[in-house]
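#structure-requests
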Amino acid sequence: MQKLKVVTIGGGSSYTPELIDGFIKRYAELPVTDYYLLDIEEGKEKLEIVGKLAQRMVQQAGVPMNIHLTLDREEALKDADFVTTQLRVGFLEARITDERIPLKYGVLGQETTGPGGFMKAQRTIPVLLDICRDMEKWCPNAWLINFTNPAGIVTEAITRHSNIKTIGICSGANSMMMDIAKAYSVEKSAVDTRIIGLNHLIFADRIAIHGEDKTDDFINKLAEGSANNSLKNIPDIGFTARFAQALHMYPISYLKYFFLNREMVETAQQDAATKGTRGEQTREIEKRLFELYQDEHLNHKPKELEKRGGAWYSDTACSIISTIYNDKKEIHVVNTVNNGTTPDLPDHVTLETNAVIDKHGAHPVAYGRLPVKIRGLIQSVKAYEELTVEAAVTGDYDTALLALSINPLVPSATIAEQILDEYLDVNQRYLPQYAKDAK
């Protein structure tokens, strides 16, 4: 039997059972023989807990997939076919700091959007580029399927600074299509959408059910409140009916941070003062999940995992790996290089859109000019993303300051500087690229 080796970096993550479940379901078309779960010393205990659950799940399913647990990057990566990443540099404690610092200044504190996403990128990009250098040594032909947030920014860093083949994925578009399917009581496979934008900044401007255009009808459902557009990790504040009709697109929930910024910041501040930031809530969810995972009788993905933001992403990750492996030429929404998809963004930058996936990778479907109602926001956020990547690679203070200052969610360059200084101070041990006297 031909070997098929898959590696997950950040294997001790609470998300791992999602992936195991996805590979088990697809074993007939994606016969993974060796699955390596890789983590670092600080994550060893969680890796062993999750790894044992993964082994029980595979045994229960009766599939001949060998689960390997390791802290040795070379052992994991050597001759791998696919590598997935779901790491969190600094663990949840760093995320909580990312969220709380901006809130002091009346600025959104969020894991991937605004200053929080910037700071996560500064910690994450150097680590992922180091992983890419190791892949170039030990598995140069492998595909890197990145789920580590901020997924679009990270994917752009890899495409700009590495030769490794990569596709960035996110569960956001998948969740949007599931919400559409629920609104029409159909399977997700019946839903077809045209999506354009950036990671966590996407819009669907065409929606069809079984090939029938339902765009106007679905927008009406959004306006009247009978369709859902809120992810688990985002406060459920709705747009007014008038705005939903005026926009006449289906925006991912993260766009509330831009279009309803004041309301969302106030809610985040209230939550932080009462039930905690999303990172603090997630810490409690993860604590309960790992208590469940230690049950020796548990041999399946627990229902409670759905409470984590990004639930169901195995459908995205495993589907894309199978599509590449089997050269299926399916259409998926992914983060990939623009390369002419729209002339309103530079060719070399990463966007999130529909793409045909085959054994050669992602081929984005041409979109054309961006509608003026979303063009400025997308271009502005993309400029911020480009500077964020440059700052993460160079450790240049001025570039970092400019990145935060031009982010639409940061109201003042003075505030940007204050946030940046606090971020750099508390994250020193994760930022070797920044000199201590960088300012």
